[in-house]
Design brief:
This protein is mainly α and 182 residues long. The chain has nine helices and no strands. Pfam families: TetR_C_11, TetR_N.
Length: 182
Amino acid sequence: MSPMAPRKQQEIFDATLRLVAEKGYDGLTVEGVAERSGVNKTTIYRWWPSKAALLGAALVESDVLGFEAPDTGSLRGDLVALVEGIVRLLTEPPASEIAVAALGAAVRHPELDARRFFADRFAREREIFERAVRRGELKASVDPMLIIDLLAGAVWMRTVFRGLPVTDDFPGEAVAAILDGV
């Protein structure tokens, strides 16, 4: 199988994510992606055997949901920047519609393996904690995933489930609650 041009692959991923945002997972079809991306559906099926596989790849590899771990020079700064990024992901279109529709669908559709999305993100987020341990800001025994889950969960609860606005000081307050305790 010859490699697909990166630009063409991004067009397929973009079409996939925009369709899931507009129509939900149930309305996502490979035919719809083919029509929107201008790529033959047999070509898409050659690379991704199902819509679940296609969406799973798009979640991890799309530029739309691209993610780089912040490096501000301090654990607190990195975590505040990370929370600000999660807030943007869940509140600013088109990423917000995509993230909520696709990751929400993963709950109802086990064939859509969103674990890869979270594992890929966490592998990048882990750098924040490794740097903090090296700088002496954090004990090596601290569980980075617990901290990420607490912070990301707070953003999901506030924005998606409660539908409340996130104030400018929310990221700093959430990080302070974790690092300083309440």
